[in-house]
Amino acid sequence: MTIAATQPGTAPVPPAGAPKGAPGGRPDRALTAVYVAGAVTALGTQMTMLALPWLVLETTGSATRAGLVFAGQVLPMALLGFAGGEVIQRLGARRTMVISDLARAPVVALIPLLQHLGALDLAVLMAIVVTLGALAVPYHAAQRVLAMELLSPHARSLARANSALAGVTNGSAFVGPALAGALIPLVGTTSVIWLDAASFAFSGLLLLRRVPAGSGGSGGAATGPRGLWAGVRHLCGDWFLSRAMLSTVVFGLMLRTQMITMPVLAFTRFEGNARAGGLLVAAYGAGGLVGSVAAYVLAARVAPVRLACTALVCVALPLWTLLVPMPVSALVVAVGLSSAAAPLANAPLMGLLSARLPDGFGPKVLQAVVTISTLAGPAGFLAAGAVLDRAGVAAALWGVAALATFASGNLILALRRLRATEDLN
């Protein structure tokens, strides 16, 4: 869950160089290339999310080292996240994405190459994954900035673009690990990592060929707000953005708590039934994918504020049913409904954000949103583990439902005030 944002008291400002397309119009070839590039790289990355720790386990048998590899990919976002907006502002969104993709391709390829040469130890692998994490820092915000500038500035068009990008992420998270799990026994772990390297090369070349050179800003420090913290200052200086960002952090805590709690719930309530745990985790991914598809359809037909408020209710309400003893099938439905509602809320919220940002603020604000959302994750995992160990599953489920209700209610009240003061629908 991310946030929506507006600039209260101002009229919508089209991004610099944005085409004046009709709301809800079909994406042109350049926008389609952004979607395809995002899908290919996300699929490759998700495959490597399984293949890389698998390689560590195959070669060392150490779960601790596999965990270090995971941490090495997240660390750059924590340390460098806010600098990503500066990169996008100076290079432009298109150039940022192309450089990120084409640079990551050979870095990923080093893993299977060095493994083949017998030169891949833990220190080298950690250096590689940290480099990959650093190169990925501005990528997701640049995707949204580029999509924003290829579309009309109408909130419904931008909501559809954000739902498409969310669908790419959710679909890849659902398909990628399963595909990697099927390919590893057939072609080997390093071959799967080679595919990830190829996906980055394909994406970079596709963007280079199909997206016009002037798209996503031309770069240059003269455009947009100055300073590393400009995006955060803009978020904190606006009443609506501040409340929306609070909900973003709370949702981040809730989602990480839920991710850890679902397997524990299956283990304790259903006597160690691994199938129940798998179904609950799969319901989360499947719901997100279905919700992204639904958001793409509904974003052009339903007013953004109305769609967001309705979806936010549906995010929180099903989670209260997890507290009641029910069959696994009912729990799966509840988790799936809540997960499906998240992209239905997120698409119009991000559409409002993109449509209403002042000219030049997109890179800094969107990167700040992505970074803050990411930073909420580790805190959520740590808090969830402590609650589960000390108070049990029931307390964790109460926490999940309460956090979701607070975050949803806070955003709904903010959206209703926004609609009343700015005549939004």
Automatic annotation (TrEMBL):
SUPFAM superfamilies linked to this entry: MFS general substrate transporter (SSF103473)
GO CC annotation: plasma membrane
Membrane topology: Multi-pass membrane protein
UniProt entry tagged with the keyword Aminoacyl-tRNA synthetase: no
Keywords: Cell membrane, Membrane, Transmembrane, Transmembrane helix
Protein name per the record: MFS transporter permease
Parts of the chain that traverse the membrane: 33-57, 63-85, 163-186, 249-270, 276-298, 305-324, 330-353, 365-388, 394-415
Region of interest (Disordered), residue spans: 1-24
Low complexity composition bias: residue spans: 1-10
Cross-referenced Pfam families: MFS_1 (PF07690)
Subcellular location field: Cell membrane
GO terms of molecular function: transmembrane transporter activity
InterPro entries: MFS (IPR011701), MFS_trans_sf (IPR036259)
